[in-house]
Amino acid sequence: MENPESTYPLLRNVFYVQNKPNEETKEIVNLLVKRGKEWHGPDVMYLNRQHIVMVEPVAAESQVGKLIHEANEKTGSSLDC
C-alpha cells in the first residue's frame, strides 16, 4: 500500500480469491487471480481510507505469498507481497 495516511491510498500488484466449481467433481476450487485481467484492465486500485477496516500483510512464506511470488515470476513483475 502506498501513501497509507492519504485520503486515497494506492494499491499495486492486487490479487483476489475467486471460487470456481470443478465441473467433474463439483468441488469448489479457490483460485488466486491478479487484478488487471478484468475487461477494463485496471493496473492500480485506489481505496477510500474511511472504508479501510484492516490491513494485514501477507507473509512471503505463506501459501498466498508463494502463489503471489509465482504469479509475479510469470509476469516479470518485481513487486512482492
Q: Which short descriptors sum up this protein?
A:
single chain; 81 residues; alpha+beta; two-stranded antiparallel ribbon; 4 strands; globular
Task: Provide an overview of this structure.
With 81 residues, the protein is of the alpha+beta class. The protein has one helix spanning 63-75, and strands at 10-12, 15-21, 28-34, 44-46. The chain starts with 9 loop residues before the first strand and ends in a 6-residue tail after the last helix. The mean pLDDT is 86.
Q: How do the SSEs run, as a string of H and E? A: EEEEH
Report the end-to-end length measured between terminal Cα atoms.
10 Å
Mean pLDDT: 86
Strand order of the largest sheet: 1-4
User: Counting H and I runs of at least 4 residues, what is the number of helices?
Assistant: 1
How many beta-strand elements?
4
User: What is the helix fraction of residues, given as a range?
Assistant: 10-25%
Query: How large a portion of the residues is in β-strands, by DSSP E?
Result: 15-25%
Class by alpha and beta content: alpha+beta
Largest sheet: 2 strands, antiparallel
- Indicate the radius of gyration in whole angstroms: 15 Å
**Unreliable stretches:** none
